Amino acid sequence: MASGTSADNDFDLLVAVLPPHLQEAVRKLPQAELLEVVMDLGRPPEARLVHGVARLSEAPVEQDALQAVLSRVGEVGGDNRAGIERTLHRVSAIRNRQGRVVGLTLRVGRAIQGTIDMLRDLVESGRNLLLLGRPGVGKTTKLREVARVLADALGKRVMVVDTSNEIGGDGDIPHPGIGGARRMQVSRPDRQHDVMIEAVENHMPEAIVVDEIGTAAEAAAARTIAERGVQLVATAHGNTLENLVLNPTLSDLVGGVQTVTLSDDEARRRGTQKTVTERKGTPTFDIVVEMVSRDEVRVHRDTGGAVDRLLTGAEVGGEKRRQQDGAVHVEAAPEVVEATPPGGRVPKGTPALGAPRPGPTRIAAHAVSRELLERVLRDLPVEAVVVGRPENAELVLTLRSRANSPRLRRAAERVGARVLAIKRNSSTEIRRALRTEFHLLEGVDPADVHAAVADAEEAIQRVLSEGISLPLAPRPPRLRKVQHTLVVKNHLEAVSVGSEPLRHLVIYPLGTVLTEASDSAPEDVDGPEPDDEVEEDDAPDVDEGEGLEASAPDEGAS
Q: Which pTM value belongs to this model?
């Protein structure tokens, strides 16, 4: 932090605007953990911390308390935000339909030096830099430090376009957190793009810092600034580069996308459909940084190349950086290997077939509701992310009636993706299928499940390579069921032998004559797990497999 004394004084100024009975409660909380104080009319006030929520009082907030806070802060602007002069704290208002304030969020603002150590080389490169991340992940804090480093450490003429006074704080004199950078305030949020252009035309900056580019006009202003040779550092909402590409308002920041129709010869040469999606132009931002958390980022050093790979269904890649104990740990982007599957050519940059993909499991929804899939994944303890194209997935979730679609099968085989079919487009079916796919057993220690799966996979490899039969270690019935599922997927045979608690699977090569009862028998099969979803959650059949045409109903059902 810039200065312990300064930070303490800033914190005291925030506490001072609260009602007296809340000030003592807030001071008892760990200052470094406090994110914001929430006051909603008729509800007890709360403090939101890094690791939880603390109630400040049991008495509900009254209208007089809200008005008392508003009287001690700056004027609330058109974006329903106010500040405390010469601090970085932000006060945001919630209004009812008549315009009366019925809630306040007092967010703690901090200037933290060293927060961009893992991005320092990118800032010093002079290239345009875009920070992506969800709200609260620390984009503005890093942007403030970028302004200070550019101005003080690199000696550049820096102009901060401060729409809500979040970067430089409230009042006419900017907070010391931005160092020697100059600050231009914006009278109304809808004028941010005008002030961006005005900063370039009137004040001859070498670098411009902007928070939250969110409109088409602001995206166009950013391109104008980039074309005039001024370094631009900005933030935008979105978790990943894919979110930005799919956002029609902001996609121009990374080059934009367009649909083009190829000639028959060109489509044949590329091994693609005649209609493809391509990048439209040069990206405004040379580098895109996805903020995974406050201490971890993924860097795309070549935005154009990353977008091209994304649009062709290849692995986007990216350099992982993590800051821990004052040191920066860098994990280089995996090397991209070209692949040429039988019967076709693929664009340059596509990873080799079967190559392991780093990070969470990529799941695509084909003829299944993407919204339902995302909702189910939020409730399951698995590392997975939903992608828009089956060609960019490791697992494709589809309906049984669409599972044999030739187009879907070709797309899945091209990248080695698994196709998981369900009977109905409902959250119940999706949850049941994913729990089976990821070996999730209610009431069973995940470590035990992992050990059983690892035991079975090792034995399966030996049976496949050596053609011998192998017994597994004794397991409870539900874990034997998981093991048996893996055996069947690898086209082998298995039976259960022995008595509990020593009953175990024996794996045989395919075609072996078996006489024992296997764990696929009814006595070893668990019944369906209870699910609280109701039929109203069911969604109509949809085809969300981008890059694939909808399968015709007569293409076969499994």
A: 0.56
Give the domain extent around 393. 361-438
Q: What is the mean pLDDT of the chain?
A: 81
Condensed to tens digits (0 to 9), the pLDDT of residues 110-134 reads: 877 878 899 999 999 999 999 998 8
How far apart are the C-alpha atoms of 160 and 180, rounded to whole Å?
11
Rounded to 5 degrees, φ, ψ at 420 are: -110, 115
- Who contacts 119 (Cβ-Cβ below 8 Å, separation ≥6)? 129, 142, 146, 289, 297, 299, 321
Query: Does residue 397 sit in the same domain as residue 500?
Result: no
Rounded distance between C-alpha atoms, residue 176 and residue 159, angstroms: 14
C-alpha pair distances (Å), 192 with each of 89, 189, 213, 216, 393: 21, 6, 9, 11, 38
Residue 299: pLDDT above 90? yes
User: If residue 184 lies in a helix (H) or strand (E), which one and from where to where?
Assistant: strand 182-185
Q: Which residues pair with 470 in a beta bridge?
A: 507
Domain with 504 in it: what CATH number? 3.30.1370.50
Question: CA 533, CA 526: separation in Å to the nearest integer?
Answer: 19
Is 397:373 a contact under the CB 8 Å cutoff? Answer: yes
Most confident by average pLDDT, 3-12, 174-183, 307-316, 453-462 = 174-183
Q: How far apart are the C-alpha atoms of 114 and 130, rounded to whole Å?
A: 19
Q: What is the C-alpha separation between 79 and 445, in angstroms, rounded?
A: 49
Chain center to CA of 249: 19
pLDDT digits (tens, 9 = 90+) for 232-279: 999 988 888 988 888 888 999 999 888 888 777 777 776 667 777 888
Give the number of other Cβ atoms within 10 Å of residue 426's Cβ. Answer: 22
Please state the domain count of the chain.
4
